[in-house]
Each structure stands twice: as C-alpha cells, then as structure tokens.
Amino acid sequence: MDYAVSIPSDGLDLSGVVSRPDDLAPGEKRGAFLILHGFGSTKESGNVMGPARLLEALGYVTLRFDMRGCGESAGERGRVICLEQVEDTRNALTFLAGEDGVDPARIAVVGTSFGGAVAVYAGGVDPRIAAVISNGGWGNGELKFRRQHASPQAWARFKGMLEEGPRYRAAHGRSLMVAREDIVPVPQHLKDHMEGRQVKLWPANALQEFPAETAQSMFDFRADDVVGRIAPRPLLLLHSASDSVTPTEQSISLFERAGQPTELHLFSDADHWMFAEDNPRVWGAIRAWLAAYFPARGPRPAASV
Questions:
Q1: Which of 15, 44, 145, 185 is most buried (CB neighbours < 10 A)?
Q2: Are the beta carbons of 111 and 90 closer than 8 angstroms?
C-alpha cells in the first residue's frame, strides 16, 4: 500500500511516499528504508524506483521523498546543499520511525550518486540509522570534481565558477545560476547508452540549473571524514568499475576508511545509473547482503558505539 506524506524538515514540508507491504500483520514491525534521490532529481527517478520495487518486494517499509528545493517539496527551487540534505534525511528518519509497521530501531538508508554520499554522511553522524547502502556515491568532493573536470582548461573553468559565485552574489544580491553539467558533466556516450535503453537520465521535473553555492557545498562535502563512525552498523558500497560520472575511486576510498562490517562491490557490466538500468547482478548482490546483515524481519543490529 502506497500513500503520500508530508515530512516536516527545518520549517519546510517535504513531499514523500510511504509504501507498506500488503502482508504486514496488525501490530507487526518491519525493517524500513529511506530511499534518497540523486543530484537535483526526485522521488520518481529510476534510481529511486528501482530499489523501491526491490525493497518492497522483500517486505520492507519504504519512504522515498523529494529533498528540499527538489521535485514537489518546499524550499528555494534549485538550492541543493549537501548538509541541508543530510538534515532532510535525518528528519525523514524521525518521521518514518513514527509510521505504523516500522521498527524505529531498524531504519536503513539507500541512495545513488549525490544521494549515496548523503546516505553515508547521514549514517556517520546519526546513530539511529541502522544500515547504509551507497550506489555510486562519493566521499571527497574536491577530489571528485578534480577527476570530473580533468583537463587543465576544464578545471580552471570549474574553479573560476566557484570563485565567481561569492562576487556575483555581492554585486547583484542573488546567486549566480549555473547549468547542471557545468557542475557534474555527463559524457555523451553514457547519454546515448541510456537513451538506447529507453531510460531517462532525469525525471521531467528534475533540476537543470543550480546556484553556485550548490557546487561549493559539494566541493566542501567530506563523507570520508565520518564514514568510519558507521561501524559496527553494516555498510554496503556499490559502484561501477568504470563509472563515467562519479570516479570509482571515491567508493574505494570510502571502503578504506570504513569500519566493519563493510562490503564494496564493483560491477564491470554497469555504469553510473545502474539502479535505473535494472541490472540483475546488482539486485542479486543487494539481496544477498540484506539477507546477511539487514533482513526485513530479523533481530535489531548492533548498537553504535
């Protein structure tokens, strides 16, 4: 059963959808998942709906929602700030913990790309999160951008944009707006591949323009600094072995800094949007990991120390 919800977060209302399994018995409590969308995307994206369908079929309660300023949620349109999205995630967890059928001690989070980075960071700073799955996430914004804007010319343009942002705001009293791909470029071969598989990269209402402050917040974001705090709660890191958007080394770095139990899976037959591609090997790895570390019905995970 799906139903729309409104989630309070820092004085804003976030638009969400809760799904409860049809076989949930009265009074029964299940493990649950928050599902986080990617950069400027929405709760309707393929990278959200793919894991939502899998988790619902496995018997979890799920909550997918639009971050502030995205989709149908309140907030300044296009203002995508990493630490604010961490707060939205924590507030969504508080909301989901109060829903019928949810074990408040067994709420996990899964996210893709930007959402994967936010999931890891939220797990590191909020011990209420019972488990974390990150798909194509990142731990060091500066190093990520340095690889995404690899040529000297591209890097100079990107750094120039960051430097111009504060000057523009001071001169005009508003943010400098920049295109999505001036922040996170997507190579043409990946666009062609997704189009050939009839998979849209972004929903129709996904953001295509952002304030320069968004790029700065991503540049400064360091999930690497907090990933070690997730243990002994379980962490699953998924990444394409040759990711065309987020450098694969970002998940490797997160793995090196994480405690145990942590697993890292690199997939050779997938690219950045592998949740949207409905890759059966990816779903198989997630199923096995969930069975071992976070079943829908099962004992509570070890408490964080």
A1: 145
A2: no
In tens, the pLDDT along 65-124 reads 999 999 999 999 999 999 999 999 999 999 999 999 999 999 999 999 999 999 999 999
Of 222, 81, 84, 83, nearest to 142 by C-alpha is 222
Task: Name the pTM for this structure.
Answer: 0.95
The CB density around residue 292, as the number of other CB atoms within 10 Å, is: 12
Q: Note the pLDDT of residue 202.
A: 76
What are the pLDDT digits (tens) for 130-157?
A: 999 999 999 999 999 999 999 999 999 9
DSSP per position, 185-243: ---HHHHHHHHHTT--SS-TT---EEEHHHHHHHHH--GGGTGGGSTTS-EEEEEETT-
272: tokens are: 């950045």
In degrees and rounded to multiples of 5, residue 225 shows phi and psi of -70, -20
Residues in the chain, total: 305
Q: What is the predicted pLDDT for the residue at 163?
A: 97
The helix/strand/coil state of 82 is: helix
Q: Which residues contact 204 (CB under 8 A, 6 or more apart)?
A: none
Q: 248: which DSSP letter?
A: T
DSSP secondary structure code for residue 12 in this structure? E
- CA-based nearest residue to 80, from 65, 89, 67: 67
Tokens 């924590």 correspond to what residue?
A: 90
Contact 15, 43 (CB under 8 A): yes
